[in-house]
């Protein structure tokens, strides 16, 4: 199959690496920026195009859309109208998704939004422990995701790309990104509240901190702190159950589980994996995610995350922002 990478920024280049790791060599790229096209050609030895029309004329079988979030829909619709399968990085906008989903189903194409953390070893272990009730009924879920935004793209100013823009800010993006897997592991949310704002002196007109408190349908209480002001990065989860505790530290790559029946801690460490130079996240989960997309097309695996589910996650983000504006708890209605 032939794959067209739409957008050759950091994520687009990562997706090229993913495909090449999987021995998929028929890869082409599109980006409006000449410097990105040049870098991709020199580093990954792929053919690139300056216009989407030129790229689509090469008749790719599938598109991998790695543009800034506010451009996802135009390329998703282009793929769907041309009956091309597509994978897209996590979105931030609900508008148009229902229409896109309908068109994708009509044209019988695979429309796969990203759900990267479902492929993380530690997240999969946490889900297994919760489902097996090794810590009993879950009571509390507390999670903190923090990074320093200028460290995301140290080669450019934060106002020069989407993460430093008001509507596509990084802290907001990560709320959706993290809620997706939290709901996958712990279940649907029935009510949500949020405090958000620009707390730091970052040189960008963005809300840099989102503090969400929510209640799952199983009555467990959860909180998610997403911020881009931490000078040292972290992802730390603590789950309190009636019969034990789960602790996950992203940087350590460890899940620790305490069970009251044994009165002992058990530690699960992720495989070492590998990282691209300059990146915090290991490549493995991104590779597995793309592999799943390819196998869905080849009818070897089932789709794990749909546009409809992504739409529901983005509604939760909307409700969280509504809560912050109205200073009230929002009940989730489906």
Short overview:
This protein is an alpha/beta fold and 334 residues long.
Structural summary, described in words:
- The strands form two sheets. This protein has a nine-stranded mixed β-sheet with strand order 14-13-12-11-7-10-9-8-15. It has a six-stranded parallel β-sheet with strand order 3-2-1-4-5-6, sandwiched between helices.
- With 334 residues, it is α/β, with parallel strands linked by helices.
- The protein is globular and about 60 Å long.
- 38% of the residues are buried.
- β9 and β10 form a beta hairpin.
- α1 packs across α8 and α6 packs parallel to α7.
- It has nine helices and 15 strands.
- Helices cover 33% and strands 27% of the residues.
Outline the secondary-structure elements.
Layout: E1 3-6, H1 10-21, E2 27-30, H2 34-44, E3 47-49, H3 52-56, E4 62-65, H4 72-81, E5 85-88, H5 97-106, E6 111-113, H6 121-131, E7 138-148, H7 170-186, E8 189-197, E9 209-216, E10 221-227, E11 229-241, E12 244-249, E13 254-259, E14 264-269, H8 284-297, H9 307-326, E15 330-331
Parallel strand pairs: 1-2, 1-4, 2-3, 4-5, 5-6, 7-10
Antiparallel strand pairs: 7-11, 8-9, 8-15, 9-10, 11-12, 12-13, 13-14
Helix pairs in contact: 1-8, 4-5, 6-7, 7-9
Cα-based radius of gyration, to the nearest Å = 20 Å
How many β strands by DSSP?
15
Shape label: globular
The parts where pLDDT drops under 50 for at least 5 residues are: none
Order of helices and strands: EHEHEHEHEHEHEHEEEEEEEHHE
Percentage beta strand:
25-35%
Largest sheet properties: 9 strands, mixed
What integer is the average pLDDT?
95
CATH fold naming of the largest domain: Dihydrodipicolinate Reductase, domain 2
Tally of individual helices: 9
Content-based structural category: alpha/beta
- Residues in helices, as a percent range: 25-40%
**What is the CATH architecture assignment of the largest domain?**
2-Layer Sandwich
Task: Please name the fourth-level CATH homologous superfamily of the largest domain.
Answer: Dihydrodipicolinate Reductase, domain 2
Strand arrangement, major sheet: 14-13-12-11-7-10-9-8-15
Query: Which CATH class of the largest domain is shown?
Result: Alpha Beta
Tally of discrete structural domains: 2
Distance between the termini: 38 Å
């Amino acid at each position: 199959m032939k794959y067209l990478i739409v957008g050759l920024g950091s994520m687009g280049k990562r997706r090229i690496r993913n495909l090449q790791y999987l021995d998929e060599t028929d890869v082409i790229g599109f980006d409006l920026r000449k410097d990105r096209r040049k870098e991709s050609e020199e580093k990954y030895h792929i053919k690139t195009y300056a216009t989407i029309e030129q790229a689509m004329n090469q008749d790719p079988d599938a598109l991998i859309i790695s543009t800034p979030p506010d451009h996802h829909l135009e390329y998703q619709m282009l793929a769907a109208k041309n009956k091309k399968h597509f994978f897209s990085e996590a979105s931030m906008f609900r508008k148009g998704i229902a229409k896109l989903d309908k068109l994708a189903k009509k044209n019988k194409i695979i429309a796969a939004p990203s759900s990267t953390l479902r492929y993380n070893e530690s997240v999969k272990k946490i889900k297994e422990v919760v489902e097996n009730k090794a810590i009993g009924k879950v009571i509390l879920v507390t999670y903190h995701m923090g990074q320093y935004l200028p460290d995301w793209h140290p080669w450019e100013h934060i106002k020069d790309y989407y993460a430093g823009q008001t509507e596509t800010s990084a802290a907001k993006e990560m709320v959706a990104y993290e809620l997706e897997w939290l709901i996958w592991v712990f279940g649907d949310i029935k009510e949500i509240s949020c405090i958000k704002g620009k707390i730091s002196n970052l040189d960008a007109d963005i809300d840099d901190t989102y503090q969400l408190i929510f209640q799952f349908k199983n009555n467990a209480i959860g909180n998610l702190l997403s911020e881009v002001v931490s000078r040292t990065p972290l992802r730390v989860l603590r789950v309190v159950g009636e019969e034990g505790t789960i602790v996950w530290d992203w940087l350590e790559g460890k899940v620790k589980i305490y069970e009251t029946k044994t009165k002992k801690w058990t530690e699960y460490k992720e495989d070492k994996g590998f990282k691209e130079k300059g990146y915090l996240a290991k490549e493995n989960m991104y590779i597995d995610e793309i592999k799943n997309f390819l196998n869905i097309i080849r009818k070897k695996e089932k789709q794990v995350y749909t546009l409809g589910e992504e739409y529901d996650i983005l509604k939760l983000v909307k409700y969280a922002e509504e809560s912050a504006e109205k200073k009230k708890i929002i009940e989730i209605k489906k």
